[in-house]
Amino acid sequence: MNKKHALLQRLENIGKVLAKNGDVLALFGLGSVGTETDRIDDYSDLDFFVVTAPGCKQRYIDQVDWLQETYPLAYAFKNCDIGYKILFEDGIYGEFAVFEETELEHASYTGGRMIWKAPHYTNDGIVSGKAAIPSRRAASLDHAVGEALTNLYVGLGRYARGEKLSALRFVESYAIDSILSILHLVESEVDYYPDVFGNERRVETRFPQFAAVVRDMMQGYEKVPESATHVLNFLENIYPINLRMSLEIRALAEQCMSERDLRA
User: What InterPro entries does this protein map onto (predicted)?
Assistant: First the structure.
């Protein structure tokens, strides 16, 4: 059985188990087992919501026997008050949450696909979240570039005093996150399953030009100064960077590399 069939079949089987109980209203899949099944691959997993009748959800949180009935569990971690991260014995991984219908009015999600619903349940629209999801895409370059630029400066200062882990986060995480938020403004985007919750998702396909150079911006723990220099180069190619800030960052990066090489 291929992975796609296994994932979809597992969801169907979960629905069959839940259908035996009179206190569950619906089960729907999200992500690659939601409306985006065409992108399922060998590394996809199960994301799903269970909707119960009022006052009935806690039983499905406190006990996961309903999942065990579907297929034996190898691991179950309750990662929040309403859900788990799980691994079935056959290697299928999943994450789920349990809600009452009214609670979903305030939940942030999108792209749901109904797997099973009780015969009397008519709210098919529940698979589409109603709560507003803040955009992770910037409307202009100004703020994101300014954040990235100052992240580089602060990060290099941390590196210079020996705080390499903090430096790595400022340069290779925070600054990169700012760049990801504006990629759609500087490169034509390939339409390939953008994710409203994470700009980094499938970036290699969606922004191939950026993907070709991002490795130079993320050279790792010891080479944060080199990473910072490449991030600065990228920023200068897309925006009129303040000359003084550019000079300060380059000088600090050179200082960090020189002092590191002397200690080597």
Answer: NT_sf
